[in-house]
Amino acid sequence: MKKIIIAEDSSVIQNLTKKILQIQNFSITSVKNGQEVLKKLDAEDYDLILMDINMPKMDGMECAKQIRQLSDPIKSKIPILAITGNARNYSISDFNEVGINEYIPKPLNFDLLVDKVKLYTEKDD
């Protein structure tokens, strides 16, 4: 079973996303900020990170940057999908620069979300 971290400070979005992905047979870990993402990654392996950009303590951009700098070659390459309500503040090149693979705008289109998650988690199979 593929393991996904959802980093999202809105519990409503977090719970919805979690339910939808669990129905698709993904194992989900939810956290509220970038620091918690790094802690979880340190402890175990994941296949994908869904990352809100605006979070307290450490935002998604900074977190993505730190993940890409990890010394573990597998963890540093984990696919990161940004979820953001204000993508217009960032360009695709801003996302690419910190190592975010793709972004999904809010309000979330869950069909699109599931498609993207599957796309990025099926690459190794």
Q: Within the CATH hierarchy, at the fold level, what is the topology?
A: Rossmann fold
**Could you tell me the mean pLDDT?**
94
Number of domains: 1
Total of helices: 5
Broad structural category = alpha/beta
Give the overall shape: globular
Organism: Reichenbachiella agariperforans
Pfam families: Response_reg
GO biological process, one term: phosphorelay signal transduction system
Protein name: Response regulatory domain-containing protein
Characterise the protein shown here.
The mean pLDDT is 94. The longest helix is centred in the first third of the chain and has 13 residues, at 11-23. Strands 2-1-3-4-5 form a 5-stranded parallel beta sheet, sandwiched between helices. It has helices spanning 11-23, 34-43, 60-68, 92-98, 110-121; strands at 3-7, 27-31, 48-52, 80-84, 102-105. With 125 residues, the protein is of the alpha/beta class.
Q: How would you summarize the topology of this molecule?
A:
Elements: E1 3-7, H1 11-23, E2 27-31, H2 34-43, E3 48-52, H3 60-68, E4 80-84, H4 92-98, E5 102-105, H5 110-121
Parallel strand pairs: 1-2, 1-3, 3-4, 4-5
Helix pairs in contact: 2-3
Descriptors for this entry?
alpha/beta, CheY-like_superfamily, five-stranded parallel β-sheet, 41% helix, 5 helices, Rossmann fold, 125 residues
